[in-house]
Amino acid sequence: EVQLVESGGGLVQPGGSLRLSCAASGFTFSSYWMHWVRQAPGKGLVWVSRINSDGSSTSYADSVKGRFTISRDNAKNTLYLQMNSLRAEDTAVYYCARVRRVDFDYWGQGTLVTVSS
Amino acid sequence: NFMLTQPHSVSESPGKTVTISCTRSSGSIASNYVQWYQQRPGSSPTTVIYEDNQRPSGVPDRFSGSIDSSSNSASLTISGLKTEDEADYYCQSYDSSNHGGVFGGGTKLTVL
Q1: With b meaning 16 or more CB within 10 Å and e meaning fewer, what string describes B89-107?
Q2: Chain A 85-104, CB below 8 Å of chain B: which residues?
Q3: Which of A57, A85, A90, B17 is the most buried (most CB within 10 A)?
Q4: What phi and psi values does residue B57 have, to the nearest 5 degrees?
Q5: Other Cβ atoms closer than 10 A to A66
Q6: Distance of CA A36 to CAs A6, A58, A83, A110, B13, Å?
Q7: Residue contact A45–B90, C-beta within 8 A
Q8: Are B92 and A103 in contact (CB < 8 Å)?
């Protein structure tokens, strides 16, 4: 069974840092591109970042470029999102998602990041 | 970069048919596949349509997708509405320049 389990969310002050993890199981993690998608409370889905299967290529939404870094450890079947210089508008549930061909076919349950003083 | 625009909300009665639109702001709607996701409150999204008009296994054939190049838009049609279809629906496509995702703002479907 495919499982994606996010962790690492929590309360952080503006300007602070947080690292999210997404533990994958039930499939060959190293074969799939992975994405982070976030959802602010009561708002819609927003794409954040993606990484290719071997980690050699990444891209970011303009809103997080230069502040967030996506990475992966295929030996540990884990996806990461390092978030620096956090702002109040980064407050959201962060989902990791697997890409099958073009669709996000599996999503984690999400981890809540709250940026507040 | 482009945007995908959806109506904020739609409502219809059980047993009826509803169509949700998703309009691409620039570039051709046909240049990148469109997906549709259903999200119920408190749950993660699930795919109901991928590659414009394909249904994942387990999704009933009451759900169908299409694209229309003349209006540069994609549509999700749900027929024989059931109360369980009440949810938020999001369209999604890709930005070829960076293989990044683009989501529509979401449409709240009310079945009343």
Answers
A1: bbbbbbbeeebbbbbbbbb
A2: 95, 100-104
A3: A90
A4: -60, 140
A5: 9
A6: 10, 11, 12, 10, 35
A7: yes
A8: yes
Is there a contact between A102 and B35 if contact means CB atoms under 8 Å apart? yes
Q: Do A47 and B100 touch (CB under 8 A)?
A: yes
Structure tokens at B81: 């509405």
Closest CA to A4 of A80, A70, A60: A80
Check residue B41 and give its pLDDT.
Answer: 93
Q: What is the model's pLDDT at position B5? A: 98
| A105 interface with B at CB cutoff 8 Å | yes
Alpha-carbon distance of A45 to A38, in angstroms, equals 6
Cα separation values, A57 from A22, A70, A105, B6, Å:
18, 10, 21, 30
The structure tokens listed for B11 are 């409502």
Q: Reply yes or no on whether the pLDDT at A69 is more than 90.
A: yes
Closest-CA residue of chain A to B33: A102
pLDDT, tens digit, for every residue of A7-63? 999 999 999 999 999 999 999 999 999 999 999 999 999 999 999 999 999 999 999
